[in-house]
Write a structure and sequence with these properties.
267 residues, alpha/beta, Rossmann fold, two-stranded antiparallel sheet, 6 helices, 11 strands, binds S-adenosylmethionine
Length: 267
């Protein structure tokens, strides 16, 4: 097995080595096991309140839910939610359809303990990059996960899972380190983004569809059926438990309601 400078198994080195794709799959599963072990060890060693991304109250996340007027009937998935209290706060606000997915069982066990006793939350231990969502969601929330994807093929996988998970009219709220933020987190390199870059890498550059008008030589242009369009952004400086300042970029996207779809937006 080869390894990159962080010690993780290098998936890129195995690509194309057999031609039938199976060797690449084996290497991917090795990398997945490495990622699980890394995150479990991080939470076990530092404790949920000792990790740099810990926040007692997820203020910016809740601010986005407020400003985008997300109804409490919406289904929410917190992607790489770890031991975050986001879903607990949403449960207290009356949201009843809450899911957390994370690669770390340690983090999920801690999150479960911290969640309000009466909250009904679905906990999924899985690598988001190879998850096949069994249903769709009205809101996709990701704080500090996407920025760990430094390989274009992993970003593409993430985009695909996001698109398979988000229903028409749904909202994706994604936060990464800003260009002046840290270059690594938890010992892993990260990709940093300003709002335009994040919108470009996750959203749809050309969110339009072209429709021929019958009997006329002209066309109408409107939102593509599944376009992911940035609708809001902001910068935040997160202060870690040890007092370090970490600038973040937040972007919220809305998926076009789609054509002929009558499901209520974000539910
Ligand atoms: C920096 S932490 C952020 C945790 C949480 N979102 C928060 O704001 O407190 C990154 C989280 O992503 C999880 N993670 C990393 N890679 C993942 C993957 N490929 N699939 C699912 N979860 C992943 C880690 O276990 C960890 O909980």
């Amino acid at each position: 097995m080869t390894a990159d400078r962080t010690g993780q198994p290098s998936e890129a080195s195995s690509e194309g080595s057999r031609g039938d794709g199976s060797r690449g799959d084996e290497r991917s599963s090795e990398a997945r096991t490495w990622r699980e072990g890394h995150w479990d060890a991080t939470y076990a060693n530092r404790g949920v309140e000792g990790v740099s991304w810990y926040q007692a109250r997820p203020l910016v996340s809740l601010e986005f839910f407020d400003s985008l007027q997300v109804p409490t009937t919406s289904s929410i998935i917190d992607v790489g939610g770890g031991a975050s209290s986001v879903v607990g706060h949403l449960a207290e606000r009356g949201f009843g359809d809450l899911t957390v997915i994370d690669i770390s069982g340690e983090a999920l066990a801690a999150a479960r303990e911290r969640a309000p006793g009466d909250a009904v939350i679905t906990w999924v231990r899985h690598d988001i990059l190879c998850w096949n969502p069994p249903r769709t969601f009205g809101v996709w929330h990701d704080r500090a996960v996407f920025h760990f994807l430094t390989r274009p093929e992993d970003r593409e996988r993430y985009r695909n899972v996001l698109r398979a998970s988000l229903r028409p009219g749904g909202i994706a709220i994604v936060a990464t380190f800003a260009p002046d933020g840290p270059e690594s987190c938890s010992g892993l390199p990260v990709a940093r983004y300003d709002a335009e870059e994040l919108a470009a890498v996750l959203g749809d550059a050309r969110p339009v569809r072209t429709t021929r008008v019958p009997g006329e030589g002209s066309t109408l242009r409107g939102p593509a059926g599944d376009a992911l369009v940035p609708v809001a952004s902001r910068r935040e400086v997160h202060v870690t438990p040890s007092g370090a300042r970490q600038p973040f970029t937040w972007v919220a996207f809305r998926r076009a309601p789609g054509t002929g779809d009558d499901s209520p937006a974000t539910s």
